[in-house]
Amino acid sequence: MLFISRNVSLPDDEIELSAVRAQGAGGQNVNKVASAIHLRFDINASSLPEFYKERLLALKDRRITADGVVVIKAQRFRTQEKNREDALARLQALIQGVAQVQKTRIPTKPGKAARRRRVDEKTQRGKTKQLRGRVRNGLD
Question: Are 50 and 87 within 8 A, CB to CB?
Answer without folding.
Answer: no
